[in-house]
Amino acid sequence: MLDDVLGWGGTLPRNRVLLVKDTVAASASFLLLYLLKKILATPDSLVIFVGLKEPFSHYSRIARKQGCNLAMHQDHGSLVYIDLLSKTILEHSSLPTDAAVINEGNKLILLFQKFIRILKEQPGRNTWIIIDDISLIEVIAQGNNAHVRDFLHYCRTLATDQQICSLLLLTHLDAYEDIDETMMANHLELLSDTVINVVPLVTGQAVDVHGQVIVEHKVPCNVNPNTCMDGFQNSRGYGLHYKLMENTVQFFTPGKHV
Amino acid sequence: MASRGRSSFTRRGGAESLASVPSSPFTRPGPHGTSLISSGFSDLDKILGGGIPVGSLVMVMEDIESPHHLLLTRYFMAQGLVHGQPLLFGCPLTSPESFLGTVPGLSKSKESPNESTNAKNQEGEALRIAWQYRKFINEQQSLEDRRLQQQKLIHNSLGTNHEYCNTFDIRKQLDRAFLMSETVECTSFQTEMTITRLQERCQQFCTKLSRSQQQIGRIALQSLCAPQGHYFRKDWELLNFLHFLRGMLRTSNAVAFISFPADLLKESFSIRWQHMADILLSVEPLLDDDKQMAKMLTDYSEIIGFIRILKLPCINTQVPTIPESSVHALKFARRTLSLERLNQAPIDATGGQSSGGSASSLVCSGPANASSPLEF
């Protein structure tokens, strides 16, 4: 159902920038794993997963319950996991220390260089870079917005200009409500082709509906028109309700859950 | 709790893997391969689904008008001390040791009724003894009692007390013997000048925990971003510290319990802090003489405040746990604290901040994030 709304029904799109926004009451990490599973299932795909929020064991346990072995994908080379929760960027970079010291000002450059290295090693694959999440990238940059914007811009050029990868970025919808913070949110919005908002129901938490996703396309996509007619559609985009279970996620149009 | 998804069916593999882990008496196997420790408050444990998962970050949003976050911190610390678990405590006071003196003591154990019957029997015997000897016998008995009490205390501190969650009496003081332990460390946010120093302290604390003995460390940081401490207004550094702490906890046998004054942070930073937490609670005050409230709640006099459940642990699973009710009344009756679900399911729009208006808005109000009060 979500695939139809996203336009992922037939083949995966290439060179897109997807932005997922979540809230404290409804976390969107399930959506990242859902899309990750989808990408890994297609042949000749490569995923670079930057994990800042949870350890690898957390992701792999959840994915295993859904029939996707992340460790196996890692061994086969279709998944590169960059753990930035327990390690720092400097520990990850294999650059000589001189270069690391020069770049001390902007550590995110090192992360970007790592992306480039992986992309050059394996050209021609349908590559996705997944970052969980951008707000923690800002924390790593110690709140230096210019560095974060540079980094995001470089990543975007990989997708749009060089057309060698796609981006899937997670950020928080509610973390940019201060006036001086809105610029970052606007910047992220501007970068992306598709925005997915994950918000709780307005009536609060419920056991059978965990929240709703609202998909907003900024560039034309091959969206299946039939399903979108069913879903509610407001000025922001197409909305679907979802229910999470251990081994799957159910998406359904509001009121149609049995 | 049905919402935890527990059923009578258990997977064989799961049970075996749990059994293979040598469990310490103070932990319980939790869902999804986690192990739980007690928060020291049995009602809160129940709401959290059995306890706090090891490796998680608990955050309590403080309220300006109510000091109940201190109560929760005290209970959390007291339980760790009674279990002999290493403790790292930090607060913005210049002498954090003084806070340790306010940690509640164990309330009377269940054996007490037996003791009282014993005493009655002895009284009966004593009647037969000539009255002159009575004084002498009483003296001896009191000496013996004291010896017994000492022995019991030593036993307790050695870990023969196998209770998962003890009951504490806030009016009592925890025995000095527990506080004198070498595993209790204190730090002050006024003397520890930099956050990196605090970070090092936490790291040292976690690396010291012995894996073989299944030691579980407790880190309690009270009012982390309070203006008295040196970390006030160092927003990004504090977030960096929290991110580091989260990463460290996940790989070590420790739990962190942090309370922070959310109103003193900028709105966007407060949200970022909330995103960092595994378990997020907020405390709210009960306004004095709220007549509307008193009418609605029958046991109004016993209630001292409210605790709101904002986030429950979601470790190794994607399914969120939905609490039966988000607001619980904190009651103080018969020397013990208890949490009780409010009968009317209250949903309130003012998350964290003390509601400026009538507290009855807690009990009856519109949905959490409706654009208009009439919308559902």
UniProtKB/TrEMBL annotation, chain A:
- Give, as in the UniProt entry, the pathway in which the protein acts: tRNA modification; 5-methoxycarbonylmethyl-2-thiouridine-tRNA biosynthesis
Lineage: superkingdom: Eukaryota
Q: Which InterPro entries match?
A: ELP6, P-loop_NTPase
* Signal sequence segment: none
* GO biological process entries: tRNA wobble uridine modification
Gene Ontology terms, cellular component aspect? elongator holoenzyme complex
Q: Does the keyword Chloroplast apply?
A: yes
- This protein's UniProt keywords: Chloroplast, Plastid
Would you identify the family this protein belongs to, as annotated?
Belongs to the ELP6 family.
Q: What is this protein called?
A: Elongator complex protein 6
Species in which this protein is naturally found: Ceratopteris richardii (Triangle waterfern)
From TrEMBL, chain B:
The cellular component terms of Gene Ontology attached to this UniProt record, alphabetical and capped at eight, are: cytoplasm; elongator holoenzyme complex; transcription elongation factor complex
**Localization in the cell:** Cytoplasm; Nucleus
Pfam families the record matches: PAXNEB (PF05625)
**Segments forming a coiled coil:** none
Q: Where does the source fall among the domains of life?
A: Eukaryota
Swiss-Prot/TrEMBL keywords = Chloroplast, Cytoplasm, Nucleus, Plastid, tRNA processing
Composition bias, Low complexity: 1-12, 356-366
Which GO terms of type biological process are on file? tRNA wobble uridine modification
Involved pathway(s): tRNA modification; 5-methoxycarbonylmethyl-2-thiouridine-tRNA biosynthesis
Fetch the Gene3D superfamilies from UniProt: P-loop containing nucleotide triphosphate hydrolases
The answer to keyword Nucleus applying to this record is: yes
Keyword Transferase included in the entry's annotation: no
As for family, the record states: Belongs to the ELP4 family.
This chain belongs to which protein, by name?
Elongator complex protein 4
